[in-house]
Amino acid sequence: MQGIFITMEGPDGAGKTTQIELLKDYLNKKGYDVLITRDPGGNAVSEAIREVILNKDFTEMGYMTELLLYAAARAQLVKENIKPALSAGKAVIADRFVDSSAVYQGIGRGLGIDTVYKVNEFALQGILPDMTFLMDLDAEVGIARKKNQAELDRMEQESLDFHKKVVEGYRSLAEMNPDRIVKVDAALPKEAIHDIITSYVEKWLARP
Ligand SMILES: Nc1ncnc2c1ncn2[C@@H]1O[C@H](COP(=O)(O)OP(=O)(O)O)[C@@H](O)[C@H]1O
Ligand SMILES: Cc1cn([C@H]2C[C@H](O)[C@@H](COP(=O)(O)OP(=O)(O)O)O2)c(=O)[nH]c1=O
Question: Which positions are annotated as binding ATP (predicted)?
Answer without folding.
Answer: 10-17
